[in-house]
Amino acid sequence: MLFGAAVSAGTLLVGCTSNESKDEEPAANDRPAADDKPGKPVTIGFAGPQADHGWLNAINDNAKSRAKKYSDVTLEITEGSNDTAQQIGQIETLINKKVDVLVVLPADGKALTQVGLKAMRAGIPVVNLDRIFNTPQAYRCWVGGDNYGMGLNAGHYIGEKLKGKSDARVIELAGLDNLELTKQRTQGFDDALKNYPNIKKVARQAAEFTVESGQAKMAQLLQAQPKFDALWNHDDDQGVGALRAIDQAGRDDFLMVGGAGALAAFQAIKQDSGVLKATVLYPPTMAASAIDLARALGQGKGVGGLAEFEIPASITLYSAVVDKTNVDQYMSTGFK
């Protein structure tokens, strides 16, 4: 999974209301909250990058399928582009169509900040999905994954598995090093390992989030490291290539933890016949949640189960660890 903005695991920053007097307002729980019952019709504009990666394709699928669940939602979805200027043009078209709410996963958060601001100034609330704009003024709500939390949870899982082993050695197959999210994942992993003085990270290699790069870089790691106990791979797509290299080398003397939550990874974990024992989620279901939030915004409702009148300003999804003990629970969310 290529994309993200790091906020500490489980962050939920709730929007404030202007009047909380019990004498003047009904109790928060008496206020309308979003539910599945048909309500005010809402047109949601959805703009994301080109679906050139399994995770991004799952983002689009989650948005479309969630919108179909609601008879009161019309989804205006763009073709998607990794070209910044083209995506800006697509979003401006949605603004000109006067959609009620926008959901935007920007190809480049910094570069698309201005068009987010343009929508907000036009009175169209923006749900900023995953890659974050430069200023909170460009969105009403941000929802996305936790890259630091991915590394942290991967490190703790490996740490607990190797807790009783002296002089344990681990290696890391990272993603693109020029991306901030890769640095965040590595930082979380390193911070977790500090809790386990018996473990030393002996090697790290950056791949490119592709099957081909995963295979090539993993082959290099295996050649340079004849003995280690665990591997953390940042991305399940490049993990397909990594597993090929591992099979070709005939290695099965370590455990592997992946990242993102691909269906192939879940299936391998369930089968439990190879080195892949777990993966840490970066769930594409965030797109379905973004549709839910956009619908609530368009209908002027809050979130069920929360006391606040408004939807939150920021929601960070949790990077759960999936292994053979809970893989069946997550199988339906796996992406191809």
Automatic annotation (TrEMBL):
<dbReference type="Pfam" id="PF13407">
    <property type="entry name" value="Peripla_BP_4"/>
</dbReference>
<comment type="similarity">
    <text>Belongs to the bacterial solute-binding protein 2 family.</text>
</comment>
<feature type="region of interest" description="Disordered">
    <location>
        <begin position="17"/>
        <end position="41"/>
    </location>
</feature>
<keyword id="KW-0732">Signal</keyword>
<dbReference type="InterPro" id="IPR025997">
    <property type="entry name" value="SBP_2_dom"/>
</dbReference>
<feature type="domain" description="Periplasmic binding protein">
    <location>
        <begin position="44"/>
        <end position="301"/>
    </location>
</feature>
<dbReference type="InterPro" id="IPR028082">
    <property type="entry name" value="Peripla_BP_I"/>
</dbReference>
<protein>
    <submittedName>
        <fullName>Sugar ABC transporter substrate-binding protein</fullName>
    </submittedName>
</protein>
